[in-house]
Amino acid sequence: MPAPDWKTLFALETDRYRIGRSMFLRGLGGIYLIAIVSWWIQVGLLVGENGLQPASRLLEFVGKNFAAEGRPGFWALPNLFWITGASDFALNTACFAGCGLALLVIVGRFVGPALAGLWVIYLSLVNTGGVFMSFQWDILLLETGFLALFLCRWEAKTTWTDPPPLTPVNRVALVFAWFLIAKLMFFSGWVKLAWSSEATPEWWTEGSAMTFHYMTQPLPTWTAWWMHQLPAWFHKASLVPMYLVEMVLPFAVIFGRWGRLVAAFGFSGLMMLVLLTGNFTYFNWLTIVLCLPLVQDRLWPAWLRSGLSFVPVGLTAPMARRPLLLRFALAGPALLGLALVNLHILVRDLHQAPKPFLKADLSPGWLDSFAAVVSPFYPASGYGLFRTMTTERPEILLEGSADGTNWLAYDFAWKVDKISDRPRFVAPHQPRLAWQFWFAALEGRFDYRSSNAGWFETLVLKLLEGDRGVKRFLKYDPFPDAPPRLVRARLMRYEFTTPDERRATGDWWKRVVIGEYLPEVSRPAAPTANPDGGAPP
């Protein structure tokens, strides 16, 4: 029997992921659809013309500052709205177009152009969304979407059945996809250990982080209440499989098809557990989608391969030299740039931690400059989910009063306010105002220097004005007929009730006042006319 041709087998290895590639692309189309619809239903209230943090105002501010430096604002904040303007019509049109393009990807029509359009649209939404669009999963979606441009087939029609083979460019992009999921998971574990110190223990190295996590996460679920009641030894023991998945399995990606299969199961299993106990938007589903290209064709269940009419192929005919060179001439610079940015991220993150793996900064100046230039486009990013574990749950309780004596609390949708409200599931939708309330509460007190000051001030003013739009954020409006004369914000500390307390009271939460977030404020006085009857000064 002749010896196997290991060179040929290695070359074919990346072509044996046709099913995973096909499912990944359609799954990515679904994630784009979820993310854009979730943003669409709140975009006008958050960054519209009359929103809490208008995108048009952001573009104007950036444009003026960069014009003073003789540079176009586009390079600091690349987005389509420099051309169209950030009106409500433009924002809604972009979301509508994004949903249409996502559906094209799902059904397999014009996948390449549709993915390119989706990446441009979502980049535009992220870069005009301010603090409401500053989450790691938004950046992860952009990085994944950019990589998908090189992993897809640029054809008019791609069927679900008998997924097409991978081109040489696709195979290179497939390796980048393996690296992306490994990078995401490894750094999620790395930051938990490398960023802890005596001054900032972060609660991971001492094993107590999970005793706080379920209660202090931004939008808890009712299952989180139950998990919080489990004994401390269970929470500490649960860190062992988590670290195994996040810090060991990423290296399994380089150990052939079986190593990648184990990594895919481990990563997906961890994400499913998080899904069952938390509201982390579409992040967990996006991570699961990223696991799909790890599974080789022959390792998918027989019933799935049969349903897809999958036909294994042997050696595929080599591409003609000219088209192959043309494809790499177009894709090569972008893939090289992507490799350089990822190298910069690895070197930087492994060096900058309080407990660095790399003692010296190995990133040359030119690489720092290159990464800074392309960073507004988010082709690649570093990640570090749950680096710091919050140990208490402060909440901002907004209250209004008509007389300065009797105060009535506002109850915002999805935010923790009423202690009797059962925590609910809302993912994959992300109610972004509720998330920002959580971040603002961690600051302890209203501060004009905070990135949350702008939207919070606008929200208070709109409550004082009885703005109809802002009422859409509320589950209950205590002032349905006339707006309050005064509004204040108290800082409360919430905790889960114990099983005995819940049986006695029916409440899921208990709370105490810990301070003042914003002192009482009133509506600005209307300008008065001059004594001689003329216009106000």
Structure overview:
With 537 residues, the chain is α+β, with helices and mostly antiparallel strands. Residues 1-12 and 533-537 have low confidence and may be disordered. α13 (256-277) packs antiparallel against α14 (283-291). The protein has helices at residues 6-13, 18-47, 55-68, 81-84, 88-107, 111-127, 136-151, 168-194, 210-216, 222-228, 232-237, 239-248, 256-277, 283-291, 302-307, 321-352, 365-374, 432-442, 453-465, 499-505; strands spanning 393-401, 408-409, 411-412, 474-476, 486-496, 509-522. It has 3 domains: 1-166, no CATH class; 173-295 and 317-391, no CATH class; 393-522, no CATH class. The protein is globular and about 75 Å long. Strands 2-1-5-6 form a 4-stranded antiparallel sheet. It has 20 helices and 6 strands.
Task: List the keywords.
alpha+beta, 3 domains, four-stranded antiparallel β-sheet, two-stranded antiparallel ribbon, 20 helices, 6 strands, disordered C terminus
In short:
This protein has 537 residues and is an alpha+beta fold. The chain has helices at 6-13, 18-47, 55-68, 81-84, 88-107, 111-127, 136-151, 168-194, 210-216, 222-228, 232-237, 239-248, 256-277, 283-291, 302-307, 321-352, 365-374, 432-442, 453-465, 499-505; strands spanning 393-401, 408-409, 411-412, 474-476, 486-496, 509-522. It is globular.
Helix-strand blueprint:
Elements: H1 6-13, H2 18-47, H3 55-68, H4 81-84, H5 88-107, H6 111-127, H7 136-151, H8 168-194, H9 210-216, H10 222-228, H11 232-237, H12 239-248, H13 256-277, H14 283-291, H15 302-307, H16 321-352, H17 365-374, E1 393-401, E2 408-409, E3 411-412, H18 432-442, H19 453-465, E4 474-476, E5 486-496, H20 499-505, E6 509-522
Antiparallel strand pairs: 1-2, 1-5, 3-4, 5-6
